[in-house]
Amino acid sequence: MLNQLSVRNVAVIDKLDINLHDGVSVLTGETGAGKSIIIDSINMILGDRANKELVRYGTDKAVVQAVFDAPKSVINILEENDIDVEDETVIITRQVTKEGKSAARINGMVVTLNILREISDRLINIHGQHDNQALLTPIRHITFLDAYADNEEYINRYKDILSKKREIEKKISSLEMDEQEKMQRIDLLEYQVKEIKKASLEKGEEDDLREQRDIYTNAEQITKSVNEAYMNLYEGDEIQSAYDGISIAVNEISQISDLNPQLKSIYDTLNEIMYSLEDTAHEIKEFGETVEFDEQTLNEIEERLDLISRLKRKYGNSIEEILEYLKKAESELNDIKLSDERTNELKEELKSITKDLKEKGNVLTQRRENAAKVLEENIEKSLHELNMEKSKFKVNIENNGTFYDNGMDKVEFLISTNPGEPLKPLVKIASGGELSRVMLAIKSILADSDGVDTMIFDEIDTGVSGKAAMSIAKKLAVIAKNKQVICITHLPQLTAMADNHYLIQKNTDGELASTTLKELDEEGRELELARIIDGGEVTELALSHAKQMLENAKNN
After folding, report:
1. What is the DSSP string of 319-338?
2. Phi, psi of 240 (to 5 degrees)
3. How far is CA 153 from CA 77, 122, 364, 445, in A?
4. Which residue in 33, 39, 36, 40 sits closest to 55, CA to CA?
5. SS3 assignment, position 436
6. Are 35 and 27 in contact (CB under 8 A)?
7. Which residues pair with 124 in a beta bridge?
8. How far is the C-alpha of 81 from the C-alpha of 113, rounded, in Å?
9. What's the Cα-to-Cα distance from 533 to each of 30, 113, 523, 554, rounded to whole Å?
10. pLDDT at residue 218 tops 70
11. Residues 19/4, Cβ–Cβ less than 8 Å
């Protein structure tokens, strides 16, 4: 569950710290107080895009931190990613700078947004107005059904085979070209293969050629410098060479080296230098003897480098890439020449994989149909509890044999809210208040198996009042027996039924507004509930009504 939430410099929030509890917690406040900013802050923790516009004016960065008691499923994922967990506590921190740079951390370790989302999806489930809109989009209905049926593993198997099927179809399409196009392609590929093969390229060849070209181009300077170096080191005619000088020094020191250990060490060092110098001098001489200016060889090197350059412009940025292109061209050429035979092989493979895909699709259909029957019963029961006693709910599944991304089915939720009315798509019949209750019914049923400990409802009360509002409050209380429930609400019925109540207020200090949040005691709850009931000022009548509602909630 979510234990603590800290927000720093997010929009109108300067500093906010909240300790949260079990049961149903409500957040209330006047319109514009900053309730939506609380949701934006939590969404940052969930891995939503961190917008620099959220950074409070005049500050450098916005920071949100949440502390959770983590379930075993989350701890396992963290351990797989080498993130330490102590006392089953997970601390998620997200920050965004005014320049738009964001960072996410879990227990102090920087993590990717993918890992953050994988973790947070198992910690919090947020229901907002966009979820109601999802109900009006039939293409989203299959997602709800698959979540209820626990179809993820089966869908992944289906998708793997579908991907292979599409890959084979693409290969067949590329082979089934018309005869003229085929001959043109063969001519081009044969020319390319012949051109590359004729060059007899070798890996690393270009670098070797460039080194040889540098030597031949600078042969005169190299020869002059090498000869000068050799003469000065070893065989000077008019001047004493370095070797001669060291030889004299070695000879002199050798006569006294036995007199002192240090002299012996000096002698050994000089002797070593002399032999090393001799070896180096001979190496220089041998290198110089290999260097000679040969215009024909230089021209051949230049022509070879020019050929490689032309091939690189056509087939790749390096000899390695050119040779890789050759391999692909030969493979394609072979496939085209044997296209009829290869096409038939691929078609047989396609036939087999299509059969397998259809079987996997039918398994998904059967699972969806089985789950739909139970889901229909449970949603109808839940709707009846939500003051929609006459409602009928149907999951319509159509399998027309078409291979879609997640199976062969089209799924749509149908509903009838009044006796005698036929079942119709939600978009044609449900009001805003009915949509809220249908979504709450679905969420409450999915919540039984999703393993998420915290559910947040952002204005679930839209479009409802009276008995419907009371039914929503009771439904959330039932959910809260097994989960932590947090609601942003305007409903007095839900506010009165809550176990914990937090007030969001906007204050203006000078020119800059700031939002605060505090947990209310009994007296504070009475005053805030009275404000909600009366829609503004707290009257004696509203206060009396609020006290009675809170008393009734305690006794229920």
Report:
1. HHHHHHHHHHHHHHHHHHHT
2. -75, 130
3. 18, 17, 10, 20
4. 40
5. helix
6. yes
7. 454
8. 13
9. 12, 42, 15, 18
10. no
11. yes
Looking at residue 423, the DSSP 8-state letter turns out to be P
- Report the DSSP beta bridge partners of residue 399: 409
Q: Where in the sequence of the chain do the CATH 3.40.50.300 domains occur?
A: 1-123+452-515
- Dist. CA 19–CA 35, nearest whole Å: 16
Distances (CA, A) of 303 to 210, 312, 318, 430, 518: 12, 14, 17, 79, 81
| Beta-bridge partners for 512 | 509
Q: Which two tokens mark 443? A: 């969420």
DSSP 154-214: HHHHHHHHHHHHHHHHHHHHHH---HHHHHHHHHHHHHHHHHHHHHT--TTHHHHHHHHHH
**Does position 33 have pLDDT exceeding 80, yes or no?**
no
1-123+452-515 under CATH 3.40.50.300, yes or no: yes
CB-based burial label for 463 (10 Å; 0-12, 13-18, 19+)? middle
In this structure, the number of other CB atoms found within 10 A of the CB of residue 66 comes to 25
Query: What pTM was estimated for this model as a whole?
Result: 0.63
Distance CA 379, CA 100 (A): 43
pLDDT grade, residue 519 (50/70/90)? very high
Distances (CA, A) of 192 to 199, 203, 269, 324: 11, 19, 62, 13
Q: C-alpha 44: how far from its chain's center? A: 14
Residue 119 structure tokens: 């973790």
Q: For residue 507, what are the β-bridge partners?
A: 514
Distance of alpha carbon 61 from alpha carbon 56, whole angstroms: 8
Among the residue ranges 161-165, 432-436, 529-533, the one predicted with the least confidence is: 432-436
